[in-house]
Amino acid sequence: xxxxxxxxxxAAPAGSEDALRAYYVDVLGMTEIPKPPVLAARGGCxxxxxxxxxxxxxxxxxxxxxxxxxxxxxxxxxxxxxxLAARGAKVTWDADLPxxxxxxxxxxxxxxxxxxxxxx
Length: 120
Prior knowledge:
The structure is a single chain. The protein has 3 helices and 8 strands; from the N terminus they run E-H-E-H-E-E-E-H-E-E-E. The N and C termini lie far apart (32 Å). The protein is an alpha/beta fold. The strands form 2 sheets. It has a 4-stranded mixed sheet, covered by helices on one side. A 4-stranded mixed sheet has the order 5-8-7-6, with no helix packed on it. It is globular and about 45 Å long.
């Protein structure tokens, strides 16, 4: 029986860890989670915020997906969008999901991220 999503894995190119840390920690406000040594040797990095974990793994022939993405629920979406924009991140609002405010952004390697908050 599935009880919860443990984490979402995204891919990234080799050597992008510093740029990923700058984005996920400094822009999004997440905390880096130390990887176990055997996995750290593969590169990449892990981040968390509350119960949410995003793992960025190194992929040799990396190409970001134009469609696939994690959907991250946020609080005070307008304030959060302003935070991202003030830190140089692209914020693209989308009104097509009834009952929600949402926007999309991209990490420094082109992974698409959705941020949403239920209305009311």
